[in-house]
Write the structure tokens for this entry.
Amino acid sequence: MSGTSADGVDAVLVEITRESDNPAVSLLCFERRPYPPGIRGRILRLPEHPNALREVCHLNVLLGELFAQAALDLLQTTGTSPTEVALIGSHGQTICHLPIPSTEGAFNLRSTLQIGEPCVIAERTGLLTVADFRPRDMAAGGEGAPLTPYPHYLLFRHPERCRVIVNLGGISNLTLLPPDTSVSEIVAFDAGPGNVLIDGVVRHLSGGTLEYDTDGAWAASGNVNQALLKRLLGHPFFRRSPPRSAGQEEFGPRMLEEILVEAEQKGISPADLVATISTLSVEAVVGSLETTIFPRHAVDEILLCGGGARNRWLSSALGTRLAPRPVLTTDDIGFPVGAVEATAFAILAYLTLVGQPGNLVSATGARHAVPLGKIIPGRNFPGLIS
Ligand SMILES: Nc1ncnc2c1ncn2[C@@H]1O[C@H](COP(=O)(O)OP(=O)(O)OP(=O)(O)O)[C@@H](O)[C@H]1O
Ligand SMILES: [Mg+2]
């Protein structure tokens, strides 16, 4: 898995067994490896590349190699033979996500593009690989995101407590899990920018020397510029009611450029700018909860995951804003914050092979539930017809 932040590859080894109606999942190993120098910038700057088509073509196989390497290294670290592994699930790297339909003649089109060639992964590892989970949901009329709610349900549902899972990835998304819930009661949608704008501002202000605001130290030293915050919270995405999903198109380079210009014009200091943009991420989550979740559900606890859960300023600001509701991280209940999303895609790949849908229509807005992904045969693929 590599998410919108394009920070690197999260690889997990999981064991999935069937337990009555639902798969049971245990995490055996998790490794996070930043992309080699320069790769993140090439992914994020793709839209401005003078020969973008060629660069996409090339990066597709390069990322396929990096994903394959991550999988092989994980096997080596854990002393696992590839013959013990049933399959690989690879989300890929999203380079474009256009969930709002555009009309072309008789067609109403939603589109998304993930790269990291799964044929390379299957070839290097010899393992059957399931990849590209989003397009099928979109073909069924969905936004293609968020796809992690059902995996969140499998990992984090609680018999008595009503939980909200908040994934602070590049974009943040929420999953409501009422206690003892059935899948049909899950509510999930993208909240707004998670780390993506914070990372962009920090990268710019540090002249490229910092990739993110480590532990939120920069945000902690600044004060929020209320006027800028208010303007940013006026973004039309925040007025869209769920199902909704966002990407770099909403909260990416264009918005970043506007923010940097405004900050310069108004003389907003670097620390104040990071504090303001970090507060935008907090308010995106708080606003989503207050509008859509809290009026209808008595939430017992909020569980943060994703890289943003490691940003201490973000997690403590969320704790303050959401008090008295407890705000914890999935680390606190024994599941590493960085491993959640990658585990989700291992689960979705498993579901594909057992012929079960992975999307929730309530989350993506698809017309129906569908099995997700494209299946690339491994080395010992038995063939399906004789
Ligand atoms: N110690 C830390 N302090 C502050 N921020 C951190 C820290 N560690 C990670 N992060 C943030 O987390 C980001 C990576 O998070 P993550 O991998 O969950 O996002 P993502 O790749 O966009 O994932 P996804 O889209 O799957 O949710 C980094 O870019 C950075 O902003
Ligand atoms: Mg990531």
Remarks:
- The pocket of magnesium ion (ligand 2) is lined by residues 2-3, 5, 7, 10, 307 (CB under 6 Å).
